[in-house]
C-alpha cells in the first residue's frame, strides 16, 4: 500500500519537470542495455563514466554518471552542471526511506527555467538501488529536464520492468562517495510550503556541481 501511494505521489507531484509525451509506443532503445545489473556497486574502472563533485551544505557527494548506458541523460546532466545551473539550488523534497530530490528550485522555491525535456532511457537495465541517481519526471515519460533524485533505499518498483506505467525512471549513475551525506539529508525535518510537501524546514543547498576525476 505504501509503495503504491509513493508511486502515485511521484507521478503527480514529486517528480516535477517540463514537457509531455502521451505516446504509448515503446520502440527498441537506441542506447546500450545492461543485461544484469545485480549490484548497487559502481566500478568506475570499467570506463565510460563521468564523475562529479556535488558540494552541498551537508558535505560532499561524489557521483559517477554512466555515459555508456544512459548517454543522452548523462549529456543532459553534464550540460546543466557545466552551465552552473545547479549552483545554489536546493534539495526541495525529501522523503525518509525513499529518496532525496533536487535540481529544479532555488531557496525561495522558485522553479528555474530549463532546457527542453529529454527522452527517457529507463530501459537501459540500470536499477534504482540505494545510492543510485535517477531523473525526476512528470507522469509523461519524456518529460525529464534538470531534476534528479538519489535513492536512499532500494526502490525496485521504480525500475522499468516493475513500474506500474511501464516506463519507470531513468537511472543514470550513482553515489561513489558521500552516502553518509545523503543519509544526513534524508534525516532532516520536513514540512509543507505553498502547496509543496516534504520540503526541508531548513534549506539544504546544492552549492555546486563540478566535473571531477573518477579516481
- Poorly predicted runs of 5 or more residues: 1-14, 16-24
Oligomer: single chain
Q: Tell me the domain tally.
A: 1
- At the first level of CATH, the class is Mainly Beta
For the termini, the CA-CA separation is 42 Å
Order of helices and strands: HEEHEEEEEHEEE
What fold name stands as the CATH topology? Cyclophilin
Radius of gyration: 16 Å
* Overall pLDDT level: 91
Task: Strand order, main sheet: write it out.
Answer: 1-2-7-5-6-4-3-10
Tell me about the biggest sheet? Answer: 8 strands, antiparallel, barrel
| Helix/sheet category | alpha+beta
Q: Kindly state the percentage of residues in helix.
A: 10-25%
Task: Provide an overview of this structure.
The chain contains 3 helices and 10 strands. The chain has 215 residues and is α+β, with helices and mostly antiparallel strands. It has an 8-stranded antiparallel β-barrel. Strands 8-9 form a two-stranded antiparallel sheet. A hairpin with a 2-residue loop joins strand 8 and strand 9.
Compact overview of the structure:
This protein is α+β, with helices and mostly antiparallel strands and 215 residues long. It is built from 3 helices and 10 strands.
Helices, strands, pairings?
Blueprint: H1 2-14, E1 49-56, E2 59-66, H2 71-82, E3 89-95, E4 99-102, E5 132-135, E6 148-151, E7 171-177, H3 179-186, E8 190-193, E9 196-200, E10 205-212
Antiparallel strand pairs: 1-2, 1-10, 2-7, 3-4, 3-10, 4-6, 5-6, 5-7, 8-9
Amino acid at each position: 500500500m505504501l509503495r503504491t501511494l509513493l508511486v502515485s505521489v511521484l507521478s503527480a507531484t514529486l517528480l516535477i519537470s517540463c514537457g509531455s509525451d502521451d505516446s504509448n509506443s515503446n520502440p527498441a532503445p537506441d542506447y546500450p542495455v545492461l543485461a544484469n545489473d545485480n549490484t548497487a556497486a559502481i566500478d568506475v574502472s570499467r570506463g565510460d563514466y563521468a564523475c562529479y563533485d556535488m558540494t552541498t551544505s551537508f558535505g560532499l557527494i561524489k557521483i559517477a554518471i554512466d555515459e555508456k548506458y544512459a548517454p543522452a541523460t548523462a549529456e543532459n546532466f553534464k550540460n546543466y552542471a557545466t552551465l552552473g545551473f545547479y549552483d545554489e539550488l536546493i534539495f526541495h523534497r525529501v522523503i525518509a526511506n525513499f529518496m532525496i530530490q533536487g535540481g529544479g528550485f532555488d531557496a525561495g522555491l522558485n522553479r528555474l527555467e530549463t532546457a527542453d525535456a529529454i527522452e527517457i532511457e529507463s530501459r537501459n537495465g540500470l536499477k534504482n538501488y540505494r545510492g543510485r541517481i535517477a531523473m525526476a519526471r512528470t507522469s509523461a515519460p519524456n518529460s525529464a529536464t534538470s531534476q534528479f533524485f538519489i535513492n536512499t533505499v532500494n526502490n525496485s518498483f521504480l525500475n522499468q520492468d516493475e513500474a506500474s506505467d511501464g516506463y519507470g525512471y531513468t537511472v543514470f549513475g550513482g553515489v561513489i562517495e558521500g552516502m553518509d551525506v545523503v543519509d544526513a539529508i534524508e534525516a532532516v525535518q520536513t514540512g509543507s510550503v505553498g502547496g509543496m510537501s516534504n520540503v526541508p524546514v531548513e534549506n539544504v543547498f546544492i552549492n555546486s556541481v563540478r566535473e571531477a576525476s573518477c579516481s
